[in-house]
Amino acid sequence: xxxxxxxxxxxxxxSPLLSIRTQTRRGSVISLAEELPAEELFPLPLLAEAxxxxxxxxxxxxxxxxxxxxxxxREWLAEDWLNSKGVHISRDGVLLTTGSxxxxxxxxxxxxxxxxxxxxxxxxxxxxxxxxxxQGAVIIPVNGDREGLLPEDLREKIIxxxxxxxxxxxxxxxxxxxxxxxxxxxxxLELCISHNVLILEDDSYGDLxxxxxxxxGRKYPSLYALEDAGxxxxxxYIGSFxxxxxxxxxxGWAAGSRELINVMAAAKGMADWQSSSLNQRLLYHLLHxxxxxxxxxxxxxxxxxxxxxxxxxxxxxRAAWKDSTYDLPSGGMFLWVSLPEGLDAGILLKNAxxxxxxxxxxxxxxxxxSGSRYIxxxxxxxxxxxxxxxxxxMSEAVTEFTARS
Length: 405
Known about the structure:
The protein is an alpha/beta fold.
């Protein structure tokens, strides 16, 4: 039978992300491409204990649950974790999702119609771009610098395009790793409030920081915390435990206006009814009952990831990378590298694959498919030895490409 797929399905199946993910599933390929944490740092013994306890304690753990998610975990999020970040919200304003990507997808489904304009950072998350394209959104990139989005460019594009939504990740933007300044956060927030633009704020990487974020050592508040508008705010704040505990638990959250949360929960009920009750109860036991200390665990991650970032930066000083440039981030999972003149990311990827290493080419992180001179390198997932080998193979690929040119 010849299947007549929708235009949206063709958009999905033609994405180069699928090909890259297929390549990285091969055991012989070293991946510097994906958004993966270090699995050797997963808290395996405590996770095993939590799973055993939860399953043996109550058969309800294996039953259907509420679309909004497991109540005690939502309450812990609101009263402990989010409250510690200056996010003041009740559990009714929290929706548990299957990772932060589902939060993005749900909001896109209920808030964006085909032809609606959406503003994004340039570059931005490839997964978010894919979700927006599936909804038929008109995606408009906004320029920025080392402090975040440029208010002048944002204002101009808001006035010209009248967007419904701005997607932003102020703390260690994927892929650039930029940490917005406090001044820039306030300027962007004020512009969006004055023009009634909803902000989808992704804080999935915000806890992964490797040094003080300003001279006083304080962390910058989220856009949600800065507005602190309760039920009528202009920010939907999303995050995930995938980067800090374990991705397979598939537990993220969206926090914001109860009206937004209710509509997203209704859409979730149609999509999958609920995220795994078992995983949510397991995570709650780990975070609230067991000896596991999430903050100490994040400190461990930050020490190790900071070391791996330094290793990658040292390897980029080799002769093969002459004239490449990058800004060393103070957090996140990625290094965003500008290649020398004449070196194309897509062509380099083909040569790297032959060597047995893969990265993410820059055009996948841009709304207009620009960025052919940029690549995204992940430093959190490969162990130190694998990172060294992968960067050696990358250097070989660059050297061969340059020699042929």
